Amino acid sequence: MIQCGPLSRTIAMPAGVYLDLGSTGKALAADLAATAAQVAVNGGGVLVSLGGDIATAGPAPDGGWRGLVAEDSSVPADGDGQVICVQAGGVATSSTTVRRWRRGQALLHHIIDPQSGLPAEGPWRTVTVLAASCVDANVAATAAIVQGEGAVDWLQTHRLPSRLVESDGTIHYLGPWPDPSRVAA
Q1: What does the alpha-carbon distance between residue 92 and residue 133 come to, in Å, rounded to a whole number?
Q2: For residue 79, is pLDDT > 50?
Q3: What's the chain's Rg over C-alpha atoms?
Q4: No. of H helices and E strands in the chain?
Q5: Confidence at residue 137, expressed as pLDDT on a 0 to 100 scale
Q6: What is the pLDDT of residue 185?
Q7: Are strands 82-86 and 100-103 parallel, antiparallel or unpaired?
Q8: Band of pLDDT at residue 108, cut at 50, 70 and 90
Q9: 57, 64, 70: which is closest to 85 by C-alpha?
Q10: What 8-state DSSP symbol labels residue 119?
Q11: CA–CA dist 149, 121 (Å, integer)
Q12: Residues contacting residue 121 through CB under 8 Å, at least 6 positions apart
């Protein structure tokens, strides 16, 4: 069990337990960079994207910030995916379709279920979440993959607009997902 010391700001972990904050660190860096850039442009609006994790700060352009939601952050801006426009906050996608490898006959991916210590299994191959910050969106997207079916109720309870893609490609939208028909030109 991981123990947190809030006053001392320390974490104690048992031997053999590792904590990977790379994804959360990237999302936090996007949030911090957006805030710093907004100050640098004297209060203007900015959008920062770090490997597909998006953070905004300040006023959005008319129609919102235009971006492509795809399963892989390396997809070009005019590639396959869904264009959305967001007014504020952060957007993050977690997916089991990238960062995959084979071990024997098993196909594995990088999103680990903390209860089993194995790659998360469930109905979602990709989850995209809009939230107040990029960190919040990132944490929610990854948590939704790990939660599996339970993610739907959890995301709705927390009022997080989401796009969930099943293993067969079926797409589900939760909450007030940005209407793709109102994309800014």
Answers
A1: 9
A2: yes
A3: 17
A4: 3, 12
A5: 97
A6: 44
A7: unpaired
A8: low
A9: 64
A10: B
A11: 10
A12: 113, 148
CB 171 within 8 A of CB 163: yes
Q: Which of 53-57, 77-81, 148-152 has the lowest mean pLDDT?
A: 77-81
Beta bridge partners of 82: 69
As given in the structure block, the two tokens for residue 54 are: 């998006």
C-alpha of 151 from chain center: 14
Inter-residue contact 79 to 178 (CB < 8 Å): no
The torsion angle over the Cα atoms of residues 130, 136, 137 and 139, rounded to 10 degrees, is: -150
Q: How many CB atoms lie within 10 A of CB 155?
A: 22
pLDDT per residue as tens digits for the range 18-50: 777 778 889 999 999 999 999 998 888 999 999
Q: Reply yes or no on whether the pLDDT at 184 is more than 50.
A: no
Does 3.10.520.10 match the CATH number of domain 3-182? yes
Q: Is pLDDT above 60 for 183?
A: no
Scanning the structure block, which residue is given the tokens 């071990």? 103
Residue 50's contacts (CB-CB under 8 Å, 6 or more residues apart) are: 26, 27, 29, 30, 33
Q: Rounded to whole angstroms, how far apart are CA atoms 177 and 65?
A: 14
Using the structure block, give the residue that is written with the tokens 């129609």.
Answer: 63
